[in-house]
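Appendix B. Chain record.
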Amino acid sequence: MYESEERRIHDSVGLIGLRAHATSVGLVQLTAELVRAGVLDEAAVDRIKDAIVKELSFSRARSASKEEFERSTRLRLDGLFAGKEHFGDLPPKPPGSID
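Structure tokens predicted for this chain:
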């Protein structure tokens, strides 16, 4: 998908308010169901995660490195889709960080 098309979808989704946790939970569940039914393969799930990472990247802080943001977001998505990470979990704090 071209970036202009991705931007159009980003704007449209924002306009109708689909940035809700319920929508995200539904997407993860739907994806899991489609994988179990043999409709989606791992490559398709990877493309779904790639689309999510690109979408989230549009709203990252300008001061954040795009590469690091996308890498860390992808790792969290991998865990979420694998059932190892739960909605609402905070990312681990970097070593030496202060509460």
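Further analysis of this model is presented in Appendix C.
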